[in-house]
Protein: Tryptophan--tRNA ligase
Organism: Microbacterium dauci
Amino acid sequence: MVSKPRLYSGMQPSADSLQIGNYIGALMQWRDLQEAYDAFFSVVDLHALTQPNDPAELREKTRRTAAQYIAAGIEPSKSTLYVQSHVRAHAELAWILSTMTGFGEAGRMTQFKDKSSRYGTDATNVGLFTYPILMAADILLYQTDIVPVGDDQKQHVELTRDLAERFNSRFGKTFQVPTPVIQKETARIYDLQNPTSKMSKSAESDAGVLWLLDEPSKSAKKIMRAVTDSEGVVRFDREQKPGVSNMLVIFAALTGRQIPAIEDEFAGRGYGDFKKALAEVVVEEFGPVRERALELLADPAELDRVLAANAARADEVADATLSDVYAKVGLLRRV
Ligand code: TYM
C-alpha cells in the first residue's frame, strides 16, 4: 500500500465555540482533505495558555473545540484528532527548536508584534514570543507535507520551513519541509459589524461574530443586523461594500455556489431578502453541527476516550521524530 502524504493543522481552544471563519477558513477544507491525506488535527491547548485562562474553563473549551471538529465532519477513526498537551513531544521539540531560532527572527512575527503592541510589554508573556516555535514543533514532529491554514498563519509556516531547512542542513535530513496551503482570499471571513476586521474568537464585541454553537435564532438575528451600505444592490466589491461582500463570501462558501450566480438571484431585491436567505443557509448548515456537538459534549467520558486513543497514535509518530532529533543534536541517550 502506498502511504498517504501527511497533513497537519490545529486550532486554539480560545472560546466556548468556534466561529464561522474557523469553519469556512479551516474546518471545511480539513473535512475535504482528510480522505486524501494522513491527517493530524490538534486542539492546541498549550498555545492557548499564552492568554489568561481560568483552568476549569480551559479544560471545557478544549473538549468543546474537539467536539466541534467531530461534529463538523472530522472523523477520529480516519484522521488523528488529539489534544496537543497529551503528546509531550510538542513542548520538548519546541525547546530544541528555540535554541536554533534567532531573537530577531522571532521578533519579526507580525502576530507577536500586533499582540504585544496591543497588550504592552509588561502584559506580554514570553510564551507569546515563542508561540510560532511551538507551532513549528507541532508541524515538524509529524513529518508533515502540507499545512492548510488561513493567511494569518502564513508567516508562522514560513518560519517552520526555515527551521526545518536549518536543522536538516546542520544535522542531516531529519524533517520533511512542509508546504503551507493558504486558503484563497475569499476564505477570509470578516466581522459582521466591522467588516474590514477579520472575524475572531477574541473579538471585543460578540455582535458581529457567528458562533457555531449559538442558538440558530441568535445567528439569524446577527445576520439581519449585519452592517451593509446605502447602495441597496447585492454585488461583490470589497473596497466599497465590505459588509455585503463578506456576506456573499459566506453564502457562496456554505452553498458551494459562485458569487455571480448569487448576485443574479438577488438582482433588483433588497438587502432584507438577501439577509433572510443567508440566515436560512447558516441555520441549515450550523443546526446539525450544533446538535451533534452538544450530543458529544453530553458524554465527556466517551469524548475523552476517543481523544486518548488518538493521542496514543500521535505519540508514536511524534516520539520517533523526537528520538531522532535528540540523538542528532547530541543529547546522551538514557539507557
Ligand atoms: P486559530 O485558532 O487562530 O485559527 C484556526 C484556523 O482558523 C483560521 N481562521 C480564519 N479563517 C478565515 N476567516 C477567519 N475570520 C478566520 N479566523 C481564523 C486560521 O487561519 C486557522 O487556520 N496558531 C494557530 C493554531 C496552530 C496551528 C498549529 C495551525 C497551532 N499549531 C500547527 C496549523 C498548524 C492559530 O492560532 O489558529
